[in-house]
Write a structure and sequence with these properties.
Layout: E1 2-5, E2 44-46, H1 52-59, E3 64-69, E4 72-78, E5 85-88, E6 92-93, E7 95-98, E8 101-107, E9 115-120, E10 129-132, E11 149-157, E12 163-171, E13 182-185, H2 191-203, E14 211-215, H3 229-234, H4 240-261, E15 271-276, H5 278-289, E16 296-300, E17 317-321, H6 327-342, E18 346-350, H7 358-372
Parallel strand pairs: 1-10, 13-14, 13-15, 15-16, 16-17, 17-18
Antiparallel strand pairs: 2-8, 3-4, 4-8, 5-6, 5-9, 7-8, 9-10, 11-12, 12-14
Amino acid sequence: MKVVVGCLFGLALTVAAPAIAFQASPARPKNVPDCADQSVQILCRLPIAFTPAQANERLGDGVFAFWFDGDVFNVALKAPAPDRRLSGTIQDWLAPISPYLQGASYRIPERGISVIDMFVRAMPEAGEHRFQGLDAPVMPAATLPFRNGTAKVHELTFPDGGTRQIGLYVPETAAPAGGFPYVIMADGDTYEEYALLIDGLIASGRVEPIVLVGIWPSSSPANAAGVSGRSGEYVLGADEAAFDLHNEFVTSIVLPFARTQAPLSSDPRGAAVFGYSNGADWALAFAVSHPGVARNVIALSASGIGEIQFDRSHLLRLFMQAGMYERPFLGQSLLICSNAVRAGSDCTMSTPYLGHTGSAWRYGASNALERIFASSVGTPTAQP
């Protein structure tokens, strides 16, 4: 991944949108609001603020380039085919500016505290890139090797007779008297990067030893109603049978198996359910309906599609995050947090200038884990 620190593009220039002679193809729907909308203050799309010649100068022999001119963030891509989509923090269609160039310009006033991750969908040769503001949060790394535990993938029988993989990270230290605290994670196909994150937090003395249980999502295609297997299992109300079957798998098969691999705490205050995006929706719904399993919830970028009914008789501790650059998730997450507090639960909400990205979720998970499982060794450094 290419990492660029904010000071590298500190040009205080005001750039007017140049006249582009090339006739662009019909515009794709934009996922970022236009700056003409005066109500938008955080991230908005401008007319392209550079010429093909300026794009070629920035690109050189490369395929992808980005740069700031004041608070105007520019992206240029060398690609002849239309319909290229920028992904990462900014998820938007690029616009043709010449027969072999595409690009976009955005106004981003908070550049100094922003992290902008970028890649072009279905175009790996464009690479992965990051703009890191000078005062932006540092994204935690997840690097091999494991130093304080082991991670293994296991295949278990799903209640419908099929199979499903789970990943287990177990610390190498002796378990405390009451068993290890643990985290149940949705989207377990990414569990290794979070196992590495936990491994590093343990090594630095910022959290006590924790077991991670990562459960792979369904890979089934969308059904006749347009609901994918993953959405059916994670989103309350999308597919009731799939949702219930997945929860049965967690409680009746996954956790009993995990207890054969490591002694786990029986105290729900020592357990957390973790998910991001639709996985966060599942984590919230599972904790509400299974308070005897886990009282802590790490819910990052929750969509809020399925309405969660919090219960005053089963109080939870919620640790939520939604980035300022993922506004639909931000609004829904704030609403969920508010509803939880009104029902008597605790909710800690973080809104950094990040997007709907893996690095943002690792950052949020790291902070939440430190708050929930703070170690008596070392000094926790969780962000507010």
